[in-house]
From TrEMBL:
SUPFAM superfamilies membership: Cytochrome P450 (SSF48264)
Location relative to the cell: Membrane
GO MF term list: heme binding; iron ion binding; trans-cinnamate 4-monooxygenase activity
Organism for this UniProt entry: Zostera marina
InterPro entries linked: Cyt_P450, Cyt_P450_CS, Cyt_P450_E_grp-I, Cyt_P450_sf
Classification of source organism: Eukaryota, Viridiplantae, Streptophyta, Embryophyta, Tracheophyta
GO BP term (any one): lignin metabolic process
Domain of life of the organism encoding this protein: Eukaryota
Catalytic activity: (E)-cinnamate + reduced [NADPH--hemoprotein reductase] + O2 = (E)-4-coumarate + oxidized [NADPH--hemoprotein reductase] + H2O + H(+)
Membrane topology, record value: Single-pass membrane protein
Binding site for heme: C447
E.C. no: 1.14.14.91
Name the record gives this protein: trans-cinnamate 4-monooxygenase
Length: 505
């Protein structure tokens, strides 16, 4: 950075301090803001709080400041709610007021400033995108059409793992193969396509770009430049990389998937409705002029992140918990043996007959929520929440992880005990019927993908436990379940090696 830039930054800092003090003097008296640490001009609470605003750190702040608190992170207001009542207020009672999304500087880049569905403000564009995506992705008809594909994908995983002698001795990083499976599960729906192997060059490119997108977006490293605009020049390099990744990625979606699909559909009879995959529906909407090509590309972008990663992380967490709780694993296996018969491979309709499997999934999603802070909400206009004033365009996080892991609402929440969902919490389900358990959110901006995620989780975990005894690698008593939290995500820090001993039927 040259001297002129430093001089400009200092000048801007001085001007911002003066403006911030004036504004806070003018405003301070009128607003009743939620409690929180005392902010200083320009930086707000950033110097006290730092960058790492993951679900656990925000839980610690909730313990200190209460069920609703405010962090002023430079220019951004961040309100965090941590009680079922306040979650209800944000997601349901005032669902319209708090139904928008904030985007920071990086998400602005990756979503084309909200040309997508997940990160767009609540309004006509969001409504249209959600409507257009519903038929091709979010109905039971889609589940019934694609469940055979998902069953086929996990069958291939099981066969390959059985054929790999290392799997039953030293162990393998099972997640690597499951990642391919998850891409195939979703790419079959989206483009009626699958990748043959983990070495498929297109798959490798796609996986690398998606991984990079997530890493760049979920990192806390760029917070300073997002919170404090005068520091933004220092972020130029980071944002440049984001732009490059975004452009390369969208080009890949366009050249290798959209154009290929268009070519294919233009050369085959269009009479048969069954042949339509999701993107055909989306392209129909484009042809009708309801959305443009950018929107189509951002729909593909959203599915790559919102669907594939979240479900994969949840599968990975589920496996880790089953390995670390062999008694739970055995009980699940016994349930499937008893209800389906030993060796009878679980299919989607079976998932509805297996209460313990359902409980294992619920318990995994409770302790190991892939999106522990939901996707950030936002109020477009000044609003009231819990008796406090929430200035317009505040980022509002619901700490869904804390709601689901707070001893005030759960019996020994730190224990992985699926039985709770058959006993004291038997009425609580992942669809958001109780505001203390919201792994998919609830209300207008809740996850529409729940309808696909739950059967995929059931079939995947079910088949693995039916066919293998899953163990830690030799010499290790338990898997390392350290977490890696992000802007609003949570995944396992280390992809574990797992021993998969085939069962003999
Ligand atoms: C275990 C897997 C999954 C989990 C835990 C999960 C969780 C979530 C959560 C917490 C939200 C935000 C809710 C809110 O902000 O109030 C969300 C939004 C969303 N999810 Fe999922 N999700 C999963 C799988 C999927 C799948 C498979 C798809 C698509 C096929 C999907 C598509 C979406 C979309 C499009 C949104 C944005 C909705 C909107 O803003 O209107 N998700 N998800």
């Amino acid at each position: 950075m040259d001297l002129i830039l430093i001089e400009k930054a200092l000048l801007a800092l001085f001007a911002a301090v003066v403006v911030a003090i004036t504004i806070s003097k003018l405003r301070g008296k009128k607003l009743r803001l939620p409690p929180g640490p005392f902010p200083v001009p320009v930086f707000g609470n950033w110097l006290q709080v730092g960058d790492d605003l993951n679900h656990r750190n925000l839980t610690d702040y909730a313990k200190k400041f209460g069920e609703i608190f405010l962090l002023k992170m430079g220019q951004r207001n961040l309100t965090v709610v941590s009680s079922p009542d306040l979650a209800k207020e944000v997601l349901h009672t005032q669902g319209v007021e708090f139904g928008s999304r904030t985007r920071n500087v990086v998400f602005d880049i990756f979503t084309g400033e909200g040309k997508d569905m997940v990160f767009t403000v609540y309004g006509d564009h969001w409504r249209k995108m959600r409507r257009i995506m519903t038929v091709p992705f979010f109905t039971n008809k889609v589940v019934q059409q694609y469940r055979f594909g998902w069953e086929d994908e996990i069958r291939r995983v099981v066969d390959e793992v059985k054929e790999n002698p290392k799997a039953s001795t030293d162990g393998i990083v099972l997640r690597k193969r499951l990642q391919l499976m998850m891409y195939n599960n979703l790419y079959r729906i989206m483009f009626d396509r699958r990748f043959e192997s983990e070495d498929d060059p297109l798959f490798l490119k796609l996986k690398a770009l998606n991984g990079e997108r997530s890493r760049l977006a979920q990192s806390f490293d760029y917070n300073y430049g997002d919170f404090i605009p005068i520091l933004r020049p220092f972020l130029r390099g980071y944002l440049k990389i984001c732009k490059e990744v975004k452009e390369t990625r969208l080009k890949l979606f366009k050249d290798h998937f959209l154009e290929e699909r268009k070519k294919l559909t233009s050369t085959r009879p269009t009479s048969s409705k069954d042949l339509k995959c999701a993107i055909d529906h989306i392209l129909d909407a484009e042809k009708k002029g309801e959305i443009n090509e950018d929107n189509v590309l951002y729909i593909v972008e959203n599915i790559n992140v919102a669907a594939i990663e979240t479900t994969l992380w949840s599968v990975e967490w589920g496996i880790a918990e089953l390995v670390n709780h062999p008694n739970v694993q055995k009980k699940l296996r016994d349930e499937m043996d008893a209800i389906l018969g030993p060796g009878v491979q679980i299919t989607e309709p079976d998932t509805h007959k297996l209460p313990y499997l359902h409980a294992v999934i619920n318990e995994t999603l409770r302790m190991r929520m892939a999106i522990p802070l939901l996707v950030p909400h936002m109020n477009l206009h000044d609003a009231k929440l819990g008796g406090f004033d929430i200035p317009a365009e505040s980022k509002v996080l619901v700490n869904a992880w804390f709601l689901a892991n707070n001893p005030k609402y759960w019996n020994k929440p730190e224990e992985f005990r699926p039985e709770r969902f058959l006993e004291e919490e038997a009425k609580v389900d992942a669809n958001g019927n109780d505001f203390k358990y919201l792994p998919f959110g609830v209300g207008r901006r809740s996850c529409p993908g729940i309808i696909l995620a739950l059967p995929i989780l059931g079939i995947t975990l079910g088949r693995l436990v039916q066919n293998f005894e899953l163990l830690p690698p030799p010499g290790q008593a338990k898997l390392d379940t350290s977490e890696k939290g992000g802007q609003f995500s949570m995944h396992i820090l280390k992809h574990s090696t797992i021993v998969a001993k085939p069962r003999v039927f």
